[in-house]
Design brief:
single chain; 325 residues; alpha/beta
C-alpha cells in the first residue's frame, strides 16, 4: 500500500480469525449465489506467496534486480496458465519512472460476443519498498502482506478463470509496479488504456489480505459509499463478505491504492478490498512483514469466497455494479 502519511496506532498482531459470516439463508431478498465447484488450493497459495515474499527478491523495489525476478515469475505464471499478454508482451513499460520498470498485464477474453467488449480489471501491486539503508541484521522489506498477499489472490483468480472459462466479459489481470512510488504503474497504464477507448466495467484491486480481521465480515472495501459494489458482492456471495471500516474512511484509503488511478480516468466503480484493519498487523512497511506471519487458510478462504462474486461480475447480462449518485 502506498505510504500512509500518519503514524499507525500501536496494535497487536492478530491471532487466527474468529471472523464469522452471515449464513446464506439469512440474506433476504437477493438472488441465489452462483455455485462454484472449483477449489482454491492452500498449497498453491502458500508456494506462490512464499516465493514472491522471499529474500531472493530483496523487497521488490521498483527498478531493482529484485522486482525483475518477480516480473519473470509473474510472466511465467501467466504463460503456464495460458493467459495471453494484453499488449505485445506481458510487460507494460512505465512511462513515468526513470529506470526500466514494468506492469505485468494479461488478458482472459470473454466468451460472449458482445459482453467480451467490456472489461473487468483484477489487480494488485507486486512492488514493495526494497532494502533498508540502516545498519541492521534484517534489511529486507519482504512485503508479504503488502502486497504479495494481494498478488497471490489475484493470480489464483486468474487461474480459476483461465481454467473454467467462466467469464463472458473479458478480464484484465494486472500486477502493478510503482505503487509504492506514488501509484506510478496504474497512472501509466490508464493513460494507454484511455487512448484505446478501453471499455471498463469495474475494477477489483486486492490490497493487503495476509491476515484476517476479528469482525463480522471477511473484508472491507475502500470508498464504501461511492458505489453499490459492497452490496452486490454480498448479494453474489450470499454472505456478509464485505463490510464498512470507519478507519478506511478516516484515512481515505480509496485514494491510496491503484484503484484510484482507474477511478480518476474512467469514473467507474474501481475499489480495493483489504483485510488490514489497523488492529491485526503491526508490521506495515517493516522488515518483519514476512511470509511466516501470513495466514494461508485465510488468504485461501478470502479468494474462494470471492469467486462467486467475480464470476457474477463477469457474466451478468447488464452492468449491475454502478456508481452511487
Amino acid at each position: 500500500m502506498k505510504k500512509l502519511y500518519f503514524l499507525l496506532p500501536l496494535v497487536f498482531l492478530a491471532c487466527k480469525s474468529g471472523t464469522s459470516t452471515t449464513k446464506e439463508n439469512e440474506i433476504k431478498g437477493v438472488s441465489k449465489p452462483i455455485e462454484i465447484s472449483y477449489k482454491v488450493k492452500e498449497s498453491e497459495i502458500s508456494d506462490f506467496l512464499k516465493y514472491l515474499s522471499s529474500d531472493e527478491l530483496e523487497g521488490r523495489e521498483t527498478g531493482t534486480k529484485g522486482i525483475e525476478k518477480a516480473a519473470v515469475f509473474l510472466e511465467d505464471f501467466l504463460k503456464k496458465n495460458k493467459i495471453k499478454p494484453y499488449f505485445k508482451t506481458y510487460r507494460d513499460t512505465l512511462t513515468n519512472f526513470e529506470k526500466p520498470a514494468f506492469n505485468i498485464v494479461g488478458v482472459i477474453e470473454g466468451t460472449d460476443p458482445e459482453l467480451k467488449k467490456e472489461f473487468v480489471v483484477l489487480s494488485a501491486h507486486y512492488d514493495h519498498i526494497g532494502l533498508e539503508t540502516k545498519d541492521q541484521a534484517d534489511k529486507i522489506n519482504n512485503g508479504a502482506n503488502d502486497d504479495a498477499s494481494g498478488v497471490t489472490s489475484v493470480a489464483a483468480m486468474a487461474k480459476y478463470f483461465s481454467t473454467t472459462k467462466a467469464n463472458k466479459r473479458s478480464i484484465l489481470i494486472v500486477f502493478f509496479a510503482g505503487e509504492e512510488k506514488g501509484l506510478l504503474g496504474s497512472k501509466s497504464l490508464v493513460e494507454k488504456l484511455k487512448k484505446q477507448n478501453f471499455n471498463l466495467y469495474t475494477q477489483l484491486n486486492i490490497e493487503m489480505i495476509g491476515v484476517p480481521m476479528k469482525r463480522d465480515y471477511l473484508a472491507y472495501i475502500t470508498g464504501f459509499d461511492k458505489s453499490n459494489m459492497a452490496q452486490k458482492i454480498n448479494e453474489y456471495t450470499g454472505k456478509n463478505t464485505i463490510g464498512f471500516l470507519p478507519k478506511e474512511a478516516e484515512y481515505k484509503l480509496f485514494y491510496r491504492s491503484d484503484n484510484y488511478s482507474f477511478f480518476q480516468a474512467f469514473g467507474k466503480p474501481c475499489q480495493s478490498l483489504s483485510t488490514f484493519d489497523f488492529e491485526n498487523f503491526d508490521f506495515y512497511h517493516h522488515v518483519s512483514d514476512e511470509f511466516k506471519l501470513m495466514d494461508i487458510p485465510h488468504i485461501t478462504r478470502f479468494t474462494q469466497e470471492l469467486l462467486p462474486a467475480v464470476t457474477k461480475i463477469a457474466v451478468s447480462p447488464t452492468q449491475e455494479i454502478t456508481m452511487n449518485k
